[in-house]
Write a structure and sequence with these properties.
The complex is a heterodimer of chains A (about 400) and B (about 230). Chain A is about 55% helix and about 15% strand. In chain A, the strands form three sheets. In chain A, strands 4, 5, 6, 7, 8, 9, 10, 11 and 12 form a nine-stranded mixed β-sheet that branches. Chain A folds into two domains: about 5-55 and about 270-410, no CATH class; about 60-265, no CATH class. The two termini of chain A are about 35 Å apart. Chain A is built from 15 helices and 15 strands. By secondary structure, chain B is of the alpha/beta class. Chain B has a single domain, classed as P-loop containing nucleotide triphosphate hydrolases (Rossmann fold, 3-Layer(aba) Sandwich), CATH 3.40.50.300. The longest helix of chain B is centred in the C-terminal third of the chain and has 16 residues, at about 175-190. Chain B starts with a strand and ends in a 9-residue tail after the last strand. The chains are: A alpha+beta (about 400), B alpha/beta (about 230).
Chain lengths: ~400, ~230
């Protein structure tokens, strides 16, 4: 394939026909450059989207008991469904292989006071697994634990902002705080990266709360976690199973939309992912479209080049060039030009993408605009291959026309 | 050197066909300088193209140096053209982005001769046509006569058996025409077989034999006293 004489011929042809070379080179460069930039910006759009919606990803199912809207199993409609500790245990047993943590919680509304001052914060009566589900990070002391649950201890772990507002820099650990008429011992302080809401909470054991409510065994919302690696459809299946299990257990009409409601974070993520995929498809289409435009550009320029060279090719044939030699010459030249300018366009495109002001782009909802090197290379190679095909067809035709016809061409 | 028997050629023109050559019998011996004459449409250029393997015949035989030229594929025809034939065209047909030397060297490239050797041979032939000092000039920097001399040097470079010239003086004024014909005579005197297609009587008279074509047949074929050009 490598033939120094042919390359010398080709280099001369490239060198002496600068306009032609520049024109075809620019078509290729521009094609790949636009592809890289559009694709890169599209990726940026996708990144922004995933950052916004998918990083809150959580493998949690929430169960909300409510009022029935249909009569069932001898019960009247509008019955309030209450989940009890026994239901939680049954749930744990039934789904022991698929669920990780169960976090029953009770909503607490009690005045909070420390010394003579009173405060308003949200209180959550939960199990220790709340720490994992809400991703609370301990700063000091400890979180409420299983022992607290078992012994119904009056202990509280408080959010960072609660500690700041009440204790103003003093160490809150070991201090006692009043929740309603009862005194709770502060055992720890946590923070949460997701925002202020969580850090404005006080966490107490749900069993303690149940005891305060005169020994009730009722719980409110229940959070359940499952294997993080599960797919959305697996999670949806689990939540459906839990729903039907609980409806059966609590005698709720299986078709009743209320009574037992389930919110599946994974399902929501799945829907978000679908949107992300739609974005991906759009980005891919834009990319393919640009590539096709580039290919059409190269095809045009190749047809033009061969047309322009018809007479020269006729002369070469009259002087003894074999048809194969003509094809090889045109093809080698076109591969050489497309390869060089294709990679040039690719490099320039990547440089432009990387030098774009990321904070300015952020305004247009574009984050980390960039293109996968593999995609950039593949696109360039596709363009080169099509450049070759686009060059081959007119080259073959030119090689086949009789020299006398080619020579007549003006 | 050339032996043609009962050669026919028609061109398809849409539904009708144009019968250009209607049975040509013709032979050329080694070292001849033959003028092929005729008005336009007589078929003289077609005959030359077939002789030059630039076009195919429909019927008849053509032997070049005892080799039957028939139904050749393009590859073989290209090789034969390269080895046996040199072309000189009315419009020169030089490659415009190659300088004089590179143009002359081009047929040698297709013979697979190395670049260095090509340049030596090409320069030698450029010297033969008196353009040694113009070797690095592009065709656009040369006069018409110079261009045709470069074309002649190129046609000679591969040392062909036959030189075919299609109206070699057609685009030149009378003085340069003389120069070019003098060169052709000189090359012929060195032993090269040359066929010149022309419609100019005075150019034809500078050859050794005149073949007159009319409506696709040879109407006259005579040896003439050559008008030898001196002092140009």
């Amino acid at each position: 394939m490598f033939n120094i004489e042919r390359w010398t011929e080709i280099f001369q042809s490239i060198q002496k026909n600068k306009l032609r070379t520049a024109l075809s080179g620019m078509t290729v460069s521009l094609g790949i450059l636009i592809f890289i930039i559009l694709f890169g910006l599209g990726e940026g759009l996708k990144n922004s989207y995933s950052d916004l919606f998918l990083n809150n990803a959580n493998n949690v199912i929430y169960i909300y008991p409510g009022k029935t809207t249909k009569p069932y199993g001898g019960f009247k409609t509008n019955r309030r469904i209450e989940l009890k500790n026994a239901d939680i245990d049954a749930l744990k047993q039934e789904f022991s292989s698929s669920i990780e943590y169960v976090n029953p919680s009770l909503f607490v509304s009690e005045p909070i006071s420390y010394g003579l001052e009173s405060f308003t914060f949200e209180i959550s009566a939960v199990s220790p697994s709340n720490q994992l589900i809400e991703k609370h990070v301990l700063m000091k002391g400890r979180y409420i634990n299983e022992k607290d649950i078992k012994e119904k201890n009056k202990v509280v772990t408080i959010g960072r902002l609660v500690a700041r507002d009440i204790f103003k820099g003093d160490d809150p650990i070991g201090k006692f705080i009043n929740l309603g008429s009862r005194s709770f011992k502060i055992v720890g302080v946590f923070q949460d990266t997701s925002g202020d809401t969580e850090e404005n909470k006080l966490i107490i054991p749900y069993t303690t709360r149940q005891q305060i409510l005169k020994g009730t065994d009722v719980v409110g919302t229940v959070g359940i976690t499952f294997d993080q690696s599960w797919s959305g459809s697996q999670a949806v299946k689990l939540s459906d199973n839990i729903k039907s299990f609980l409806k059966k257990r609590k005698s709720v009409d299986p078709t009743d939309p209320s009574g037992i409601r389930i919110r599946n974070v994974a399902d929501e993520i799945d829907r978000s992912l679908q949107f992300a995929n739609a974005l991906q498809i759009i980005v891919t289409f834009v990319g393919i479209g640009t590539l096709i435009a580039g290919i059409i550009g190269i095809s045009n320029i190749m047809v033009f080049i061969v047309k322009e060279r018809t007479k020269e090719l006729g002369i070469r044939k009259a002087l003894g060039a074999e048809p194969n030699e003509i094809i090889k010459m045109i093809l080698t030249e076109s591969i050489f030009i497309t390869a060089i300018s294709g990679f040039l366009g690719m490099v320039i495109g990547i440089i432009i993408l990387n030098s774009l002001d990321s904070s300015a782009l952020q305004e247009y909802f574009i984050t980390r605009a960039g293109v996968d090197l593999n995609i950039a290379f593949s696109a360039t190679i596709i363009l080169i291959i099509f450049g070759v095909i686009a060059g081959y067809i007119p080259a073959k035709r030119a090689a086949q026309i009789k020299p006398i016809v080619a020579l007549r061409d003006e | 050197m050339i032996e043609i028997k009962n050669l026919h050629k028609s061109y398809e023109m849409g539904s009708s066909s144009l019968h250009v050559l209607k049975g040509i019998d013709f032979s050329v011996a080694d070292g001849e300088l033959v003028a092929i004459m005729g008005s336009s449409g007589s078929g003289k250029s077609t005959l030359l193209n077939i002789l030059g393997m630039l076009d195919n015949s429909d019927q008849g035989t053509y032997d070049l140096d005892k080799i039957r030229i028939a139904n050749m594929d393009e590859k073989k025809a290209a090789n034969y053209r390269n080895k046996f034939l040199g072309f000189v065209f009315q419009s020169f047909n030089l490659i415009n982005y190659k300088n004089a030397l590179e143009n002359v060297a081009l047929p040698l490239y297709y013979q697979g001769i190395s670049r260095k050797e090509r340049q030596v041979i090409a320069l030698n032939y450029l010297g033969k046509v008196g353009l040694k000092d113009w070797s690095s000039h592009l065709p656009s920097e040369l006069s018409g006569g110079q261009k045709q001399r470069v074309a002649i040097a190129r046609a000679l470079a591969s040392n062909p058996k036959v030189l075919l010239a299609d109206e070699p003086t057609g685009a030149l004024d009378s003085k340069t025409s003389m120069e070019v014909m003098a060169l052709i005579q000189k090359i012929n005197n060195e032993g090269k077989t040359i066929l010149v297609v022309t419609h100019e009587q005075d150019i034809a008279e500078m050859c050794k034999r005149i073949v007159l074509l009319k409506d696709g047949v040879i109407v006259e074929d005579k040896k003439v006293k050559q008008n030898i050009i001196k002092n140009v």
